[in-house]
């Protein structure tokens, strides 16, 4: 009988610890929502804002691993939380979305007139054979960007591996993004 009581007492203690632990986790999660966070403040420099619906086309030039391509594609998908427009940032059913997210930060631009842009992952073109050579000129970059259909409003971004170089570019030279309409 004493052995049975010890086993029962151990089970009760184990359940009590489990319930207390889950209660503490729930309390911590609730506390995150009770603490109000300071709103993100952006300075409006009165420049042009990207508005409307855009596809972001990725032009992979060189050998990229599947993981590298997936990482960049996932980032582009995370820029918009509007599942109606093709983003896959929604969490699995029953799983809350992670906050803050890139989409929640990007949504702060909606406060400015005329509102925020909505971005979606467009076409991905892979040129692992380096068909334009190992050194890319501005003209070659334009040729790469032209490989994507220009029938939609899109931002086409050539991405190159670290072993390639572009003439006229230094590490501090920002890459040119081609906007097609």
TrEMBL record:
- List the InterPro entries hit by this protein, alphabetically: EXORDIUM-like
GO CC terms in record: apoplast
Keywords in alphabetical order: Apoplast, Secreted, Signal
Q: Where is the signal peptide?
A: 1-24
Instruction: Determine if Signal is one of this entry's keywords.
Output: yes
Keyword Cell membrane in record: no
Mention any Pfam family matching this sequence: Phi_1
Location(s) in or outside the cell? Secreted, Extracellular space, Apoplast
Family indicated by similarity? Belongs to the EXORDIUM family.
Protein name listed in UniProt = Uncharacterized protein
Q: Which organism is it from?
A: Zizania palustris (Northern wild rice)
